[in-house]
Design a protein that fits this description.
383 residues; Elongation Factor Tu (Ef-tu), domain 3; five-stranded mixed sheet; 8 helices; 33% helix; binds zinc ion
Length: 383
Amino acid sequence: MTRRLYYEDEYLCQFDATVRECRMKNDERWIVLLDQTAFFPEGGGQWPDLGTLGEANVLDVHERNGEVEHLVDMYLTPGKQIHGCIDWERRFSVMQQHSGEHIFSGLVHATFGYDNVGFHIGSEAVTMDFNGEITEEEARNIETKANKVIFSNVPIEHFILDKETRKTLEYRSKKEIEGDLRIVRIPGADTCACCGTHLHRTGEIGQIRLIGVQKYKTGVRVSILCGLRALMYERRIQDEMEKVHRLVSSRLENCAAVIEQVLEERKNLQYKNEQMAMRLFELQSRSEQDKPVRVVHCDELTGDGTARAAGKLADGARIALVTSGEEENISFALCSDEMDVRPITRVLCQVFSGKGGGKPGMTQGKIRRTDRDVLRKWLCDNI
Ligand SMILES: [Zn+2]
């Protein structure tokens, strides 16, 4: 059995070991067993460690049949002494995320009684799924409390509980575990069964930043960032805010109000544009009034305006086609109070390279730019 150095010293990032076994997994990969290792195998939601064993790169680490299996990209000779190096930056960040998760989950459990039923360290954020709902404000309160636990810099303890003693201790656990149980305790925040590696003191987490609370199954999914990840996130947000600040030329605390005003003005302008487009359309449709088949093109109509215009144009006609838009991408609306326009729309789209659909009395879609007289002639020939 491999001696697990990561439980004896979580901060050990270099070690010497003897290769016990090396078997080929495929053409370029081997599985290596050592007499002892500081490489943490994936488990309990924690990432496996990466790094090097001598000249070989460690690509993955798993636990199988009580052994720690290192997946490497080179053959290593059994019996040989080897020097192992762990990617410490990655491991330290993982420990920050993991210890931070314990604090957050422990506080949620103590405050609301909910369990963390799904813990995942993603490449972007840590997610925790709780089996009960908490609001964003409640999550913010937990975030504040969690950061206070970090500021108090309490030691993170771990110890083994035997079957008898475990009856006297309250702890969080995802599943029933037979035999000895490894407990990780953070005074004032959490006591939890865990096989992962943790920091020595809460202060090393740096900070916990709540970045999302969303409904998930019967509860919520909460996303957090710890340590350097939180700092990088803050920096990205700050950079974006600086850009916004420069764009609206206002004091940072007024940016939202200025943007709100700009959006309101934009909405009013859009409304005015639509009104003007409709007036233009009405002028253009005057010459169509006496015809049973009416076709109008109006550059200025946008969105729902095209359908509204077709509805008006169809009044008193057999069928009305309105096209709108500039360049090659032309919107159309086909309307009739007398017939189901869907079959003819299908043919229209085939002939004029478009797509569209809708209800019996009104269809909408896109076709290629086509002269109005060509469209009118085609419609007259096909209805
Ligand atoms: Zn854990």
